[in-house]
UniProtKB/TrEMBL annotation:
The chain crosses the membrane at residues 29-55, 67-87, 146-168, 180-199, 219-241, 262-291, 311-334, 346-363, 369-393, 414-437, 443-463. Pfam families: Transp_cyt_pur. Gene3D superfamilies: Hydantoin permease (1.10.4160.10). Keywords: Membrane, Transmembrane, Transmembrane helix. It is found in: Membrane. It comes from Sorlinia euscelidii. InterPro entries: Pur-cyt_permease, Uracil/uridine/allantoin_perm. This is Nitrate reductase. Belongs to the purine-cytosine permease (2.A.39) family.
Length: 488
């Protein structure tokens, strides 16, 4: 492990937050690509094609929206991953250079809340799949019909199984996540390809959905296109912030770029047509489109297909939940209490907190849940903008490792608060979400991620260069510490 030149503050440091040295970074481009494959292949992304077509796009235009969204995501992810790969640091530590050691808790808490909530919702969705599948292959399962806290006993059993699977994977540590994704990512795409081949066979071609024309033209098309791109990016806005949590374990910048290119835009452009072709087949077989893969398995009523498909859905959910939600939430919790929490303890705490959200009750108000999560995701665009501006422009890709783990150092700001970052975040976040509440500003809502990221990027540089309040101006005797790359 990298030795820090100065004694770190125990409130800001433990072994899980320390820089990962190069000789302890096991992931190459293939590991990262399969991790992203596992995350891109999930029920939410599968159903996103339905949402786009419901807006009036043709199948080809859906692919264009997906291509633009994932191209922008790829650029944002790669840029924000650079610092993680260079220094081996997680998001919750890197963010201190802009927001300060105390102010950093604001975006960390926001990201942590979003991660645990998404984990809870997606894990419950997977438990519903398990519940439905068990009722198909074992009819006696549904006799466990006693209701407790708003859920049947067979629902509780399915939920317990899903929670236990998440705990089992997390109990084996970071390295096991890489090995799990190495299998899970390709397995999900193989099963998706099998479903697409079934669709091509049943439909004798690409199917009726590809034959549907576009219903959008002119400005209506442009506005809806922008909203579609923003909507897809909203699903990944939280991960654009904490991608260093993954890239810190990657051997080189080349590996992280190649891995993310294959895992993000390439995989998305392969997976989306699979979803459309498979759904086209349901129009022919059942007379209407079935976009939910669980509903499709139940409609097919084939035990073998149900078992294989159900297992794939569960694996896909585990893939996205472990890497995109539990792992970043663990680092966020460790950052709050580094003296009491390590990775394993925080993983169990995430499982408990996720259960405390009682997602089965929230599912009765699905519109409210996703409206809340979309607002939170919109607020994370400004965090991305601040991080990129701070690292690439203000710091010129040079960070002082010792100062990231101490108070009264280079990143102290005003009593631990990075005022420029906080102001840029508040203003950018306000503009990103105001369109959701003020109809006349609806255009801002359609471009919320871009507005929040762009405004915060610009304002942070303006505020940080305009003599904004800095504790160093109040404490002139505190020496400036030279930027260091560290012994990586």
């Amino acid at each position: 492990m990298t030795t820090l030149p100065l004694a770190p503050d125990p409130k800001l440091y433990n072994d899980d937050l320390a820089p990962v040295p190069h000789d302890r970074r096991p992931w190459n481009w293939l590991n990262l690509a399969t991790i992203w494959m596992g995350m891109v292949h999930n029920i939410v992304v599968y159903e996103a094609a339905a949402g786009l077509m419901a807006l009036g796009f043709s199948a080809v235009e859906c692919l264009e929206v997906v291509a633009v969204a994932y191209a922008v995501l790829f650029i944002a992810m790669c840029l924000n991953a650079v610092s993680g790969t260079r220094y081996g640091l997680p998001f919750c530590v890197l963010i201190r250079s802009a927001f300060g050691p105390v102010g950093a808790q604001l975006p960390v808490l926001l990201r942590g809340f979003c991660a645990i909530f998404w984990f809870s919702v997606q894990a419950y969705a997977a438990s519903q799949a398990v519940d439905a599948i068990m009722m198909t292959v074992w009819p006696a399962w549904q006799t466990l019909s006693i209701t407790w806290l708003g859920m049947t006993m067979h629902g509780w059993c399915a939920l317990a199984l899903i929670w236990a699977l998440h705990g089992w994977i997390m109990n084996h540590g970071i390295q096991s996540i890489g090995r799990f994704e190495l299998v899970a990512g390709p397995l999900v795409i193989i099963m998706g390809a099998g479903a697409a081949l079934w669709g091509l066979s049943v439909g004798h071609g690409i199917g009726p959905l590809f034959a549907l024309p576009s219903h959008l033209h002119g400005w209506a098309f442009a506005g809806t296109f922008a909203g579609g791109v923003t909507g897809i990016m909203g699903m990944w806005a939280s991960f654009a912030v904490n991608v260093p949590d993954l890239s810190r374990f990657v051997r080189s910048q080349r590996d992280q770029i190649i891995g993310q290119f294959i895992g993000l835009p390439v995989t998305a452009l392969i997976f989306t047509p699979m979803a459309i072709v498979t759904t086209s087949a349901t129009v022919i077989v059942f007379g209407h489109a079935i976009w939910n893969p669980v509903d499709l398995l139940l409609a097919l009523n084939n035990t073998t297909v149900t078992l294989l498909g159900g297992a794939t859905i569960v694996i896909a959910t585990l893939s996205v939940n472990v890497v995109a939600n539990i792992m970043p939430a663990c680092y966020d919790l460790i950052n709050l209490m580094p003296r009491r929490l390590d990775f394993h303890r925080s993983a169990y705490l995430v499982l408990i907190l996720g259960l405390a959200f009682m997602p089965w009750l929230w599912f009765t108000q699905a519109t409210s849940v996703f409206a809340l999560l979309n607002i939170i995701s919109g607020l994370l665009g400004p965090v991305t903008g601040v991080m990129l501006a701070d690292y690439f422009v203000r710091r010129r890709q040079l960070l002082s490792l010792p100062d990231l783990y101490r108070r009264d150092g280079l990143y102290e700001g005003l009593y631990g608060w990075g005022v420029a970052a906080i102001l840029a975040f508040i203003i950018g976040g306000f503009l990103a979400v105001i369109g959701a509440f003020v109809p006349t500003l609806a255009l801002l809502n359609k471009l919320s991620w871009f507005v929040g990221c762009g405004v915060s990027f610009t304002l942070y540089l303006v505020f940080s260069q305009s003599g904004s309040i800095d504790k160093r101006r109040l404490l002139p005797n505190v020496p400036r510490v030279r930027h260091e790359q560290g012994n990586m």
